[in-house]
Design brief:
This protein has about 300 residues and is an alpha+beta fold. The protein has 2 domains: about 25-155, 2,3-Dihydroxybiphenyl 1,2-Dioxygenase, domain 1 (Roll); about 165-290, 2,3-Dihydroxybiphenyl 1,2-Dioxygenase, domain 1, CATH 3.10.180. Helices cover about 20% and strands about 35% of the residues. The protein has 7 helices and 16 strands. The strands form 2 sheets. Strands 1, 2, 3, 4, 5, 6, 7 and 8 form an 8-stranded mixed β-sheet that branches. Strands 10-11-12-9-13-16-15-14 form an 8-stranded mixed β-sheet. Strand 11 (about 205-210) and strand 12 form a beta hairpin. The radius of gyration is 21 Å and the shape is globular.
């Protein structure tokens, strides 16, 4: 009888001990999104001359540009890499920022997530990082900023008043599997705070905030569309305080004459004003106001994320 009582207790103690040994380190933000581009000069023209961002540093490989960094603020960037072929996906990866990359690596391994065995190496711009995949195959770059890395050395620099936005609010990507939602919610600790529907029949997107920060990811739910249609779903959202002022700033730029698409302001299902722009490769760049049009929160749909 004593044995039967002790075994469950010992198992519980072991589970508690394992959780204490590998707690989840903090995930504090969404530091970048990485994109493949066909014409790097056209992309520079869009992100720098039209949107007003700077390009503080780049990485060269064998005498050629391998990656360049478009700075939104001291902790957030858009990474642009020249394509290897026209069939390369435009969306390369999103990133999550932690202040303990090695601790997060050990935590992920304890949860059965495929992660590097270690030890971690510093990347080409001096930060710690590594790649993991969610169950849908979306690549996630785990990033820890290091004091001697290029990012932190550039703090306070290269942030023009001409920037259309001061913040990367969210990154949107396709999610087709319930396991992916479980991964972000239960393994990474993301907090769902809103979901919407396009047709009133099924959930179309869901917003999940990083556990120790205020940036978020947006799930684009449903089957994966054809390659040529994915640029609308895969996207980055830039926060603006005043949409009218943002559009006026864009229209005043000399580069506006080279952007031939119309820029239309609409109110989204979350009751916030939005305007969609598209970079030269068709990736959507969404401008979104930081408040609802009526000052009231937008109620989420109660429809499930995935139909059974």
């Amino acid at each position: 009888m004593l044995f039967r009582t002790l075994v469950p207790s010992l198992l519980l103690l072991c589970a508690v001990s394992a959780a204490q040994e590998n707690p989840r380190p903090r995930i504090v933000g969404v530091p970048h999104v990485a994109l493949h581009v066909h014409d790097i000069e056209a992309s520079r023209h869009f992100y720098k001359d039209l949107l007003g961002f700077s390009e503080p540093f780049s990485i060269m490989q064998d005498g050629k540009l391998w990656m360049t960094f478009i700075k939104i603020n001291d902790r957030q960037y858009v990474e642009l890499s020249p394509e290897n072929s026209k069939t390369d996906p435009r969306f390369m990866h999103l990133s999550v920022e932690t202040d303990n990359a090695d601790g997060l690596r050990k935590y992920l391994l304890s949860k059965g997530v495929k992660a590097p065995a270690g030890p971690l190496q510093h990347g080409r711009i001096g930060n710690l990082g590594y790649m993991v995949n969610d169950p849908d195959g979306n690549h996630i770059d785990v990033t820890q900023y290091e004091p001697d890395g290029s990012t932190m050395k550039n703090v306070g620099k290269d942030m023009s008043e001409e920037r259309i936005s001061r913040r990367l609010l969210h990154v949107g990507f396709y999610v087709t599997k319930p396991e992916t939602a479980t991964f972000y919610k239960e393994t990474l600790g993301f907090r769902e705070f809103w979901r919407g529907t396009a047709d009133g029949k099924a959930a179309s997107y869901a917003n999940l905030m990083v556990p120790e920060g205020t940036e978020y990811v947006e799930f684009m739910l449903g089957p994966m569309p054809p390659v040529e249609q994915r640029g609308t779903g895969y996207h980055l959202a830039l926060e603006v305080p005043d949409m009218d002022a943002a559009i006026a700033k864009l229209n005043a730029k000399p580069a506006r004459k080279d952007y031939t698409r119309p820029i239309e302001v609409k109110t989204g299902r979350n009751h916030k004003r939005q305007a969609n722009l598209y970079d030269p490769d068709g990736t959507r760049v969404e401008l979104m106001e930081d408040h609802t049009v009526d000052g009231l929160p937008s109620p989420p749909t109660s429809l499930p994320l995935f139909s059974k």
